[in-house]
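Field reference: sequence -> structure
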Amino acid sequence: MAVTRIKLCGFTRATDVRAAVELGVDLIGLNLARGPRKIGLDQAAALAREIPPGVTAVALFVDADEETILTALSATRCTVVQLHGRESPELAERLARRVPVIRAASISSRADLEALRGYPADALLLDAAVPGQHGGTGTTWDLGLLAGVDLGRPIYLAGGLGPANVAAVVAAASPFGVDAASGVESTPGRKDPAKMSAFVHAVRGTISSSGDPALENPTEIP
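Structure field:
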């Protein structure tokens, strides 16, 4: 039985990062792309310094080129890349030779899921499809689309997850991990300590039933 990983994204304040670390969050996402949670390299580097060994710092990008991504990784010392745009499989493959890659995708149909098959990523993050937005939408999607689908990669589920519904999602879908941004915030980019705590406790009170021993080694994938 594998314990569900917890990934929280869109941090902009050191106090929030420290609170997430104290709660035992597994991955912390820093948005270097766009939107109300976007931060610059200097701020991302400062926040990454608050993330201790054992907690993974993830840098989020949308349609950035390879040089931009590698420069950001060097500046921030983030150790995982999350791709949210139309990045080519070739770019992902080159990046994956250096760091683990999480491929984020907006899902509204089985076709969206099938389009991910074979993409060279270490894990997939499945989010709601909202035009013009890349993550942190606060919108749910039909998890029933996953029924009978095996994409050959560990899956993080996102999209409208919060303390009130995440336990049910974990129990129903048995994902490798869950991801939240807006669901644990007071305003965009400002985390709510009580919501983060409730979210973590809701997830930790459930166990993923994936039963795949390969998913239990935290050194293998993000």
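Note: Helices lie at 14-23, 41-48, 66-76, 89-96, 110-114, 166-173, 193-204.
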